[in-house]
Amino acid sequence: MELEERGFVIGVAIDEVKEEEAQEMEEAEAADKPKGAQRFKVTYQYVIPGALSGAGGGSSQAGGVKSEAVFNITSVGDTIDSISTELATRTSRTPYFEHLQMVIISEDVAKSELGFANVIDFFMRDQEMRRSIKVLIAKGEAKKVLEVKPPSEKLPVMYIRSITENTEKTARMLPASRLGDTEEHLLRSESFVIQQVKGLKQEVKVSGSAVFQGSKNNLIGFLDEEETEGLNFITDEIRHGIIKIKLQDNLVVFDIHSMKNKIKAEVKSNNKIKFTIFVDTEGSVGESFERLDFLNPNIQANLELKIGEEIERLMKATIKKVQQEYKKDVLGLGAYLRGNHYDTWKQVKADWDSGDNYFAKSEIKIETKVKIRRAGNVNKTEKRKGE
Which of 159, 181, 200, 295 could crosslink 153 through cysteines, CB 3.0-4.6 Å? Predict the structure, then answer.
């Protein structure tokens, strides 16, 4: 096929269709809809190659006329495959998915026991799809995420993709969720988390995480930013971030430079497996409103202790949420048992986070160790005695 005849799709948003919406958009097709069948509203973001040559934001000037670099087209159907095929009746360029960057799925579709798995199934079967495609869960309508118009970028999808990869800057964002990884979680029927996104008018926010239960492969809830940060400490996914603490009623900011963790398990009883998670963190004082001599060993030791207590608080809040409220193992403890205590895992895997739910019965302890490598010297500190 000639390059000029291809329709390059770089983003797909999938929403659940309401009955009245289906009748309004495709009245004839909606009339034949089987009762109770799920329907999808799929939005495709196409690139307009000719509009990419200009500099600047999301549009370019051609002959004095402002043109967008992308356009979105929405269609409704019972299956993703039939919707993609139907696009050939509405666009001059047939959809081409080998440059697809991300799939955004609304929380309504993700909460459906069959909807989420069926969507992932289509993208894994299609020969044009890549396993590295990003998967995100939209808080609200997924279509709105593709409709953002960032002033600094021509392609909204590329702007969103760049944000999903900013884990080197913040600890409150999950590592990017790949299509191939999501399929593996579904095949193993294990609980997992996916990045959460929310679309605004000119920007999006990628933070927090969507929690999926492995027994039914559907969305059961969300973790907020702090709980996601605690999760990243538990799963050893911290690349950079900050910890804020109060020291004598003033804020001190600890910049995380490196982190590593280790898990140990005591498996004497299946009904009371005991885990200990050791977290070792190093960093520097990035900002301080409290004027103290951080080179003083006693002051530094006290600060390290308080930072460790804050990290422990974040981790315990996450553990409480997933162990007591959701009762689903998104902490990777089941994977640890499978790799290090396989005999025990064979006994508990069928009821690990469902049925008897050995995960919810487990005891999880936290031990932290913090080391300040650099205290900084910009803010004036108190004078030492004798100076």
Answer: 159
What values do phi and psi take at 157, rounded to 5? -65, -40
Instruction: Quote the tokens at residue 220.
Output: 């059961």
The secondary structure of residue 3, as a DSSP letter, is G
Q: Which residue type occupies 15?
A: D
Structure tokens at 250: 């003033």
Helices (H) and strands (E) in the chain, counts: 13, 15
- Residue 221 token pair: 């809830």
What does DSSP assign to residue 246?
Answer: E
SS3 state of residue 96 = strand
Q: How far apart are CA 320 and CA 227, in angstroms?
A: 10
User: Which of 335, 324, 360 shows the shortest CA–CA distance to 234?
Assistant: 335
* Number of alpha carbons in the 13 Å side-chain half-sphere of residue 32: 5
Do 151 and 57 meet the contact criterion of CB atoms below 8 Å apart? yes
Q: How far is CA 241 from the centre of its chain?
A: 16
Contact 297, 317 (CB under 8 A): no
Q: How many other CB atoms sit within 10 Å of the CB of residue 305?
A: 13
From CA 336, how far away is CA 263, in angstroms rounded? 8
Render pLDDT for 245-296 as a digit per residue (tens, 0 to 9): 998 888 999 999 999 999 999 999 999 999 999 999 999 998 888 887 877 8
CB 277 within 8 A of CB 365: yes
Angle, vertex CA 22, rays to CA 18 and CA 23, nearest 5: 120
- State the amino acid at position 6 in one-letter form: R
CB atoms within 10 A of CB 369: 12
Q: What is the DSSP letter of 272?
A: G
d(CA 377, CA 285): 9
Task: Single out the residue of 221, 255, 250 nearest to residue 238, CA to CA.
Answer: 255
Q: Given this model, what pLDDT does residue 221 score?
A: 96
3-state helix, strand, coil in the chain (%, to 5): 35, 30, 35
Largest CA distance in the chain: 89
Cα-based angle 78, 82, 84 (whole degrees, multiple of 5): 120
Q: Which SS3 state, helix, strand or coil, does residue 32 take?
A: coil
